[in-house]
Amino acid sequence: MLALPWIVYFDLVPIWEDMDDIKVCVEVWPNEKASQNYFLVVNLGLQYLLPLSIIIFFYILLFIKIWRRKMPKIVRQSSDDTLNDWNTRIVEKSKIKVLKMLIAIVSLFALSWLPLYAIFARVKFGPPFDDSTFEGILL
């Protein structure tokens, strides 16, 4: 449903005016502002920032639940508390590992989609492309 406007605003246009048979599919919006607003709200907002926010929110809830959970303690016959201290350290280290894993998952999601949205933002809001735009990329 979010991509439905693209059905309306994408069109085949000739690459060169003298060759009508070679065409490329491009966005043809009524005005530039509509194109930019669609990108900001739908592409960036609903397809990147909203899912990222939901993932972060639920992983924070998951981590809070894990952090508050009481782990069963190993009971030892002697009065030595070193085993209980050891058990507590192991549990704390496990919780830190879970936190690191959750941060890695969220970071991986955010960083893997970020270049695509950065390129789209450059196309939508940056200056028009010319021949010098691609010189650094092609060299």
List the helices and strands and how they pair.
Blueprint: H1 4-9, E1 10-16, E2 19-27, H2 32-68, H3 82-125, H4 135-138
Protein name: G-protein coupled receptors family 1 profile domain-containing protein
Family: Belongs to the G-protein coupled receptor 1 family.
Domain G-protein coupled receptors family 1 profile: 1-139
Walk me through this protein's architecture:
With 139 residues, this protein is mainly α. It has a domain at 31-75 and 83-126. It is 65% helix and 12% strand. It has helices at 4-9, 32-68, 82-125, 135-138, and strands spanning 10-16, 19-27. The chain has a two-stranded antiparallel ribbon. The longest helix is centred in the last third of the chain and has 44 residues, at 82-125. It is elongated. The two termini are 40 Å apart. 0% of the residues are buried. The mean pLDDT is 84. It is found in: Cell membrane. Keywords: Cell membrane, Membrane, Receptor, Transmembrane, Transmembrane helix. It is a multi-pass membrane protein. One of its GO terms (cellular component) is plasma membrane. GO terms for molecular function: G protein-coupled receptor activity; peptide binding.
